[in-house]
Design a protein that fits this description.
10 helices, six-stranded parallel sheet, Rossmann fold, alpha/beta, seven-stranded mixed sheet
Length: 364
């Protein structure tokens, strides 16, 4: 790379334990006589005859109680169910890749119109979606180059993780006292993780050229101990601000930050409710906005007009407000760059290719 950087990569490789239990939850049933979705292709019912409710499933691979990724999905589901009481919702979490094809098949057979499903279950989507062309699959976290592998009833959304990474990096770069900051992530093969990590690096360097960026990979999205061990490793190497993107394993990262009194950047939702004394800010994943877009485009009959779209700062905040104790310098710099992004005068580099991140991080 042309940029002068000093990077350390720490791999915490252990056997992966995958949770396979899936927990469905259904919202209240809609009242009788509800109109069908626009563009559903169904013939208009005779006057006075009851019509089938619109049905939407929301599916994620980790626990709704993980405090970050899937809790953000769950909170989006609760918000949507409240806003659309006439839609029949179901929520499934902790779904393993092994069980996903069976569950998706059951949902399609049950007549679900829209399924919002996380990209971690991509293989199951690719297997089931072609068999049920009347069911729409809305998939966050998919880059445009992958939509060709999916059938036309799949709508892919790329969320601009480079934005949340960049803004988090600005905050971290102006908060660190050791000039060492770190990312602890579950894996590096995901485009959104690559974009997040590079954005974090780029944002930090924009305000603190002397900062070093360390990377630790848990190779597991679930195991809390692995998250803790990786966080301890980067702390031992001098990092005093750690961005975590490790789902359930991130609980261990937060625990280590609390024990060693270093700052943390949370994942997916505002995690200051878990550790207000050390949570500098949090990346925000726009699950509520993305699943809401999927439902409204189905209801108004425009779903399928695009196979791919992007969500970013125009659709919602990319990071949570900085902690009250954060420096005025950090707060002002983040606000300035956030305004520049909204104005279109600042566009963080998008690096979604994992090989680019591999080169950057000099993975061993």
């Amino acid at each position: 790379m042309k940029k002068s950087i000093s990077l350390l990569v720490l791999l915490c490789m252990v056997a992966i334990f995958v949770m396979s239990a899936c927990t469905p939850e259904s919202a209240a049933q809609p009242p009788a006589g509800q109109s069908p979705a626009a563009g559903s292709g169904e013939d208009e019912q005779a006057a006075g005859e009851e019509t089938a409710p619109v049905k939407m499933a929301i599916v994620t691979n980790s626990s709704r109680a993980d405090g970050c990724w899937s809790q953000s999905v769950y909170e989006g589901y609760l918000k949507l169910a409240e806003e659309y009481p006439d839609v029949e919702f179901t929520f499934v979490d902790s779904l393993s890749s092994t069980d996903a094809p069976t569950l998706l098949t059951q949902q399609c057979e049950a007549g679900y119109n829209v399924i919002y499903i996380v990209s971690a279950l991509y293989t199951a989507i690719a297997e089931v979606a072609p068999m049920y062309p009347d069911t729409w699959f809305v998939i966050p976290g998919i880059t445009e180059d992958r939509i060709g592998d999916l059938p036309s009833n799949c709508i892919c959304i790329y969320e601009q993780y480079e934005e949340s990474g960049y803004l988090s990096g600005v905050a971290a770069g102006l908060t660190t006292k050791t000039n060492k900051i770190a990312c602890v992530v579950g894996q590096v093969g995901y485009p959104n993780v690559s974009a997040l990590c590079y954005g974090f690096y780029e944002g930090a360097k924009s305000v603190n050229p002397a900062v070093e960026v360390l990377i630790a990979v848990t190779s597991d999205w679930v195991d809390v101990q692995k998250g803790y061990d990786c966080a301890c490793a980067v702390i031992d190497a001098g990092a005093d601000v750690i961005l975590q993107h490790a789902d359930d394993a991130g609980v261990g990262v937060i625990k280590a930050c609390q024990e060693y009194d270093v700052y943390c950047v949370g994942e997916a939702r505002d995690q200051s409710d878990q550790a207000p004394d050390i949570m500098l800010t949090s990346q925000i994943v726009l699950h509520a906005e993305m699943m809401g877009w999927g439902l409204t485009t189905y209801l108004d009959g425009t779903i399928g007009e695009v196979a791919y779209t992007e969500f970013g700062i125009e659709q919602g905040d990319r990071i949570a407000p900085l902690a009250d104790w954060a420096s005025d310098e950090a707060k002002q710099a983040v606000e300035k760059d956030m305004a520049a992004m909204k104005a279109g005068t600042l566009a963080p580099t998008r690096q979604t290719d994992s090989s680019v991140i591999d080169d950057l991080m000099s993975l061993l």
